[in-house]
Amino acid sequence: MSTTVSAYAAPTPKAPLEPTTITRRTVGEHDVLIEIKYAGICHSDIHQAREEWGDGIFPMVPGHEIAGVVTETGPGVTRHAVGDRVGVGCFVDSCRSCAHCKGGREQYCTQGVGTYNAVGRDGEPTYGGYSTHVVVDENYVLRIPDALPLDVAAPLLCAGITLYSPLRRWNAGPGTQVAIVGMGGLGHMGVKIAHAMGAEVTVLSHSLRKRDDGLRFGADHFRATGDPATFTELAGSFDLIVNTVSANLELNAYLGLLTAEGTLVNVGAPENPVPVAMFSLIQGGKSLAGSMIGGIAETQEMLDFCAAHGIGAEIETIPVDRINEAYKRVVDSDVRYRFVIDTSTFAR
């Protein structure tokens, strides 16, 4: 039978989030019921709750960085068992038959179902991790290794894979020069992961304010983009630059930092189009690319990699009644480096 659970939702676009209850579907043949322990706050939660990326489905329960424990399984479940430590990321279903799904790249499926602000196969809206429980098909649930505490693991389900995927795809590793642009919720994960992969890592941040943190996370160098000398002195230096910033940057200047045949990958999503001069790409045979999250297999690979290297997100844990305060602080860049909701603070 379906279950009513506590949640926090935006009742209308741009409205403060407020406590509510939602209905989770009956556990089906291949479903698992997860008691959510922690839910990360991603900036994309704010964008969607405020309809900054287009129309949303309201009331909206955000949250796609979910870590918890399995409390019930359907009769056909083979991947997970009661008591397992698990996670759920940015999507909870896909068509399973297209080339992307068959190739383990479910994140590109045109019929994919988001963890929230989407419509499931049953025609009902999906609700995210700002709640006490969630029901998810076993094929879209990740195993969280025992070496990873659940609270620092939660942001890996979005921030972690968002950085792991391009670093792996473009072969960050020993002998490569990698730059991470911005050191916020995404960027700090990029520094940790690129360092663990063996790359020489440079942080490119507007100022040197976070320099000590960057070096502690594994950066070899930390340079301020607010200093024009940075772009002169580092010209032609990097094999790979991963841009995590969602503001409009002068991409031509960053392309100038690439070595010949280097790649600038964007994982941030600016609100407005960004102009690029074609000669910034043509001269040197450089590439401008985009990347998002990863598929289920790659996300599991990322979690195992992070466990093996002792990598978790830097977090500030909050009770649920501070979600709106946290939203304001995220917008103001006043968090180091990811807020995580402790769901034990929900009223039961």
| Domain count | 2
Q: What is the residue-mean pLDDT, rounded to a whole number? A: 97
Give the biggest beta sheet.
7 strands, mixed
Number of helical elements: 11
**Strand proportion:** 25-35%
Number-wise, the strands total 17
**What class, by secondary structure content?**
alpha/beta
Shape: globular
Helix content: 10-25%
Low-confidence stretches: none
Radius of gyration, in Å, reads 20 Å
Q: Give the name of the CATH architecture of the largest domain.
A: Alpha-Beta Complex
The CATH superfamily of the largest domain is identified as Medium-chain alcohol dehydrogenases, catalytic domain
- If you consult CATH, what is the topology of the largest domain? Quinone Oxidoreductase, Chain A, domain 1
CATH class of the largest domain: Alpha Beta
How far is it from the N-terminal to the C-terminal residue, by CA?
A: 19 Å
Short overview:
This protein is α/β, with parallel strands linked by helices and 348 residues long. It has helices at 43-49, 99-102, 150-153, 159-169, 187-197, 211-217, 229-233, 251-255, 278-282, 296-309, 323-331, and strands spanning 3-9, 18-24, 31-41, 66-73, 85-88, 91-93, 113-114, 133-137, 142-143, 177-181, 200-205, 221-224, 238-243, 258-266, 287-290, 315-318, 338-342. It folds into 2 domains: 3-158 and 294-345, Medium-chain alcohol dehydrogenases, catalytic domain (Quinone Oxidoreductase, Chain A, domain 1); 160-290, Rossmann fold (3-Layer(aba) Sandwich).
What does this structure look like?
- Helix 4 crosses helix 5 (187-197) and helix 4 (159-169) packs across helix 10.
- 24% of the residues lie in helices and 26% in strands.
- It is globular and about 65 Å long.
- Strand 13, helix 8 (251-255) and strand 14 (258-266) form a beta-alpha-beta unit.
- The chain folds into 2 domains: 3-158 and 294-345, Quinone Oxidoreductase, Chain A, domain 1 (Alpha-Beta Complex), CATH 3.90.180; 160-290, Rossmann fold, CATH 3.40.50.
- The strands form 4 sheets. Strands 3, 4, 5, 8, 9, 16 and 17 form a 7-stranded mixed beta sheet that branches.
- The chain is an alpha/beta fold and 348 residues long.
- Residues 3-341 form the Enoyl reductase (ER) domain.
- Keywords: Metal-binding, Oxidoreductase, Zinc.
- Belongs to the zinc-containing alcohol dehydrogenase family.
- It catalyses: a primary alcohol + NADP(+) = an aldehyde + NADPH + H(+).
- It comes from Streptomyces humicola.
